[in-house]
UniProtKB/TrEMBL annotation:
<dbReference type="GO" id="GO:0005905">
    <property type="term" value="C:clathrin-coated pit"/>
</dbReference>
<feature type="domain" description="FCH">
    <location>
        <begin position="3"/>
        <end position="52"/>
    </location>
</feature>
<protein>
    <submittedName>
        <fullName>Growth arrest-specific protein 7</fullName>
    </submittedName>
</protein>
<dbReference type="GO" id="GO:0030136">
    <property type="term" value="C:clathrin-coated vesicle"/>
</dbReference>
<dbReference type="GO" id="GO:0072583">
    <property type="term" value="P:clathrin-dependent endocytosis"/>
</dbReference>
<dbReference type="InterPro" id="IPR001060">
    <property type="entry name" value="FCH_dom"/>
</dbReference>
<dbReference type="GO" id="GO:0048812">
    <property type="term" value="P:neuron projection morphogenesis"/>
</dbReference>
<dbReference type="GO" id="GO:0048268">
    <property type="term" value="P:clathrin coat assembly"/>
</dbReference>
<dbReference type="InterPro" id="IPR027267">
    <property type="entry name" value="AH/BAR_dom_sf"/>
</dbReference>
<dbReference type="Pfam" id="PF00611">
    <property type="entry name" value="FCH"/>
</dbReference>
<dbReference type="GO" id="GO:0005886">
    <property type="term" value="C:plasma membrane"/>
</dbReference>
Length: 93
């Protein structure tokens, strides 16, 4: 390249590079904005899923207590009463 062409080439190349960097930054900004929106939607979705899961476990806990816990406690109490009766009668013998 001749001296003048070289002097002309460098500013043109710098202008092209500036344009490419500007496009890159704009594209990156769009990507980050979209990611942030999607992340917010995912958080809302996860919150709903966890609320549903919480409800399921609370219902299970209540049902488990009423259908297993209470009857088992009653059996234990009745067993204790029966054992006391047996001890009372054994004392008579």
């Amino acid at each position: 390249m001749a001296g003048f062409e070289l002097l002309l080439f460098k500013p043109l190349k710098a202008k092209q590079m500036q344009k490419e960097m500007s496009e890159f930054i704009q594209e990156r900004t769009k990507i980050e904005e979209e990611y942030a929106r999607n992340l917010g939607e995912a958080c809302v979705h996860m919150k709903n899923i966890l609320a549903d899961e919480e409800e399921v476990h609370l219902k299970f806990s209540t049902k488990h207590h009423s259908e297993v816990g209470k009857p088992l406690m009653n059996i234990c109490e009745n067993f204790k009463k029966d054992m006391k009766k047996c001890d009372y009668h054994n004392g008579d013998l």
